[in-house]
Design a protein that fits this description.
Layout: E1 21-25, H1 29-32, H2 34-45, E2 49-53, E3 66-68, H3 75-88, H4 94-100, E4 101-102, H5 104-111, H6 116-123, H7 127-139, E5 143-147, H8 149-152, H9 157-171, E6 180-183, H10 190-195, E7 202-203, E8 207-208, H11 212-222, H12 234-242, E9 248-252, H13 256-259, H14 263-271, E10 275-280, E11 292-295, E12 304-307, E13 312-316, H15 329-339, H16 349-359, H17 368-374, E14 376-378, E15 404-405, E16 424-429, H18 445-450, E17 455-458, H19 460-466, E18 473-477, E19 482-489, E20 497-501, E21 514-517, E22 524-525, E23 529-535
Parallel strand pairs: 1-2, 1-5, 2-3, 4-15, 5-6, 9-10, 10-11, 16-20, 17-19
Antiparallel strand pairs: 7-8, 12-13, 13-14, 16-23, 17-20, 18-19, 18-23, 21-22
Bound molecules: ligand MGD (2 copies) and molybdenum atom.
């Protein structure tokens, strides 16, 4: 299997209907993937056993046969204990491990140290429950793992994912319908963007930038010399801007002034640039820092494909005319290229798609005409006429040996732990009504009316301890910043922690978050930092610009 970031969604979500067991960890689909949540609930109605593991009580937990409300940041303890049971109780799929994996011995030896009895006090789940859940997962006819940002957004996010991969591999729960590993995708086209090479270490189709033969392939295709060095990732880019290594930036469809960790630091980085271009459909917090803003068209105003979490390439058709001077992103990029002296001549997204087919074996068989006819095709689809393959890794994994590498993981704690000065844990994430930085949803009247104000969810016991009534203002301070927002009582949030969505610019959660990165995945630790909460604070003010809509004055 390729790196955990390389888009290895093995089975489509709807196969939860075929699974006997679904193990959902670090994801809140009712809020963030409502269609998947509905499929999961329907599967449970038809007999699928759902295991939910999350430090917060979520709506789907009510449908679960087992809800493991384990301690935040202790995924490796919980998952290694499950692996321990699988090894200890002889539940390993020996033939699968022998024929399809490498590194099993080291994994086996490592998980010996992680008995459920030893890990129970670490993760907060009774040893007996860990044993039951491990047996259930390992021995079912088909078990599927779904996960989200609760797994990824830690400095040990790669280790968390490796443990999930090890669960599937040691038990052979992969390569058949109703099994496998599904990291639930986020942005509507994050899968397509990654496939197309919008990851700094990859060209299209996860071909490595650093590999000479790959470099040659693309130099030949594009008729130009290419840099052999992989690029920087988001947080690294901001650091380089602050240090002067990067002086110009062109940001398209991203709002890092609100979505990057340690927002004050991120804004300093953006402000330090000599030149910033922002191409967006709205004037965002990031756009306010720009020298040039290029108005782009929104999804229903243009033609193009997006690839969803199930590797389904879907054609979107233009339904309405764009407002004012807004132009499709592709048109803007091509005009920019021409002025840079490049001989670009793409007149239609179809021409770009056809070029992609030349360098991406995974979609080589998908013709634009077929997309126009069928609207959607699953990849891999290597030859024209192929049906498209819903289930991956049926016979081999995409590694040199064809085997999946098992990698042991040890306990690493979050970079910043609660202490006397900052005694609580901040968990950040999303809410149903808003999309990330709220640039779109806070401008949508109905959604804005449902969730108009910044909120922090806390356990009623913590509210009582702090002397705060629900709806009152609290101030939340971390080593990096401070915000004031409204308290909400939520008995799903564990005592000692609070949950804040990051969509409210007037109380930006990312002013508080820690910008440390997973050294392998390079994902920031958005899910865990130390904060102090006190009653009272300034009323959050929504100004007439940035994330919110312009408010009519009474
Ligand atoms: N409505 C709405 N939907 C969205 C989005 C949106 O902004 N709004 N964004 C989209 C995008 S890009 C993404 S990436 C997805 C994200 O979708 P999810 O991953 O479902 O969303 P999050 O809210 O970031 O966090 C998921 C869960 O991680 C849990 N968690 C916190 N700490 C830990 C931990 O230490 N271990 C574990 N295992 N879990 C932990 C949280 O309690 C939470 O339930 O949603 C997509 N869908
Ligand atoms: N604290 C905290 N921070 C997080 C996370 C977290 O869980 N906690 N999650 C992280 C994750 S997983 C993600 S994915 C990021 C998301 O972070 P961002 O991607 O920065 O957030 P969005 O609000 O989705 O920004 C997308 C922008 O694209 C614009 N847009 C929409 N359609 C188009 C289009 O067709 N063309 C152009 N040019 N622009 C368009 C929107 O107006 C919006 O401004 O946030 C990350 N930050
Ligand atoms: Mo995301």
């Amino acid at each position: 299997m390729e790196g955990v970031n390389s888009g290895a969604v093995s089975n489509p979500v709807r196969e939860v209907a075929m699974a006997e067991v679904v193990f959902l960890i670090g994801a809140n689909p009712t809020v963030n993937h409502p269609v998947a949540a509905t499929w999961i609930k329907n599967a449970v109605k038809n007999g699928t056993k759902l295991i939910v593991a999350d430090p917060r009580g979520t709506e789907l937990a009510r449908h679960a046969a087992h809800f493991l409300q384990f301690r935040a940041d202790t995924d490796v303890a919980l998952l290694n204990a499950m692996l321990h049971v699988i090894v200890d109780e002889g539940l390993v799929a020996d033939a699968f491990v022998r024929d399809r994996t490498s590194g099993y011995e080291a994994l086996r030896d490592n998980v010996k140290k992680f008995s459920p009895e030893l890990m129970a006090p670490v993760c907060g789940i009774p040893a007996q429950t860990i044993r039951e859940v491990a047996r259930l997962y390992a021995t079912s006819r088909g078990s599927m793992i779904l996960w989200g940002m609760g797994i990824s957004q830690h400095i040990h996010g790669t280790d968390n994912a490796r443990c999930l991969i090890a669960l599937a591999m040691t038990t052979g729960q992969i390569g058949r319908p109703g099994t496998g590993l599904h990291p639930l995708r986020g942005q509507n086209n994050v899968q397509g963007a990654s496939d197309a090479g919008l990851i700094p270490m990859f060209y299209p189709d996860y071909q490595r930038v650093a590999m000479p033969e790959v470099k040659q392939r693309f130099e030949k295709l594009w008729g130009t010399g290419l840099d052999p060095k992989p690029g920087l990732t988001v947080v690294e880019i901001i650091n380089a801007a602050r240090e002067g290594g990067i002086r110009g930036m062109y940001i398209m469809g991203e709002n890092p002034a609100l979505s990057d960790p340690d927002a004050n630091h991120a804004r300093e980085g953006l402000a330090a640039l000599e030149h910033l271009i922002v191409q967006d459909i709205f004037l965002t917090e990031t756009a306010y820092l720009a020298d040039v803003v290029l108005p782009a068209t929104a999804w229903p105003e243009k033609i193009g494909t997006v690839t969803n979490t199930d590797r389904l390439v879907q054609l979107g058709r233009k339904a309405i005319e764009p407002p004012g001077d807004a132009k499709p992103d592709l048109w803007i990029i091509v005009e920019m290229a021409k002025r840079l002296g490049l001989p670009w001549n793409y007149r239609h997204p179809r021409e770009v798609f056809n070029e992609m087919r030349q360098c991406m074996d995974s979609i080589a068989g998908i013709t634009w005409e077929r997309l126009e006819r069928d609207s959607a095709v699953t990849y891999p689809c290597e030859r024209e006429g192929d049906a498209g393959q819903a289930v991956l890794f049926t016979r081999r994994f995409p590694t040199a040996s064809g085997r999946a590498a098992l990698v042991p993981a040890d306990l690493i704690r979050a970079a910043e732990q609660p202490d006397a000065e900052y005694p609580m844990v901040l968990i950040t994430g999303r809410q149903l009504e808003h999309w990330h930085t709220g640039s779109m949803t806070r401008r949508a009247g109905v959604l804005d009316a449902l969730e108009p104000e910044p909120v922090a969810s806390l356990h009623p016991l913590d509210l009582a301890r702090l002397g705060v009534t629900p709806g009152a203002i609290v101030t939340v301070v971390s080593r990096r910043g401070s915000i004031a927002l409204y308290a909400r009582a939520d008995d799903g949030t564990p005592p000692g922690a609070l949950f804040i969505p990051f969509c409210y610019y007037e109380a930006s959660a990312n002013k508080l978050t820690n910008p440390v990165l997973d050294p392998i995945g390079k994902i920031p630790e958005f899910k865990y930092c130390a904060v102090r909460v006190t009653a009272g604070g300034a009323v959050p003010v929504r100004a007439s610009y940035g994330g919110g809509q312009i408010l009519a004055t009474a």
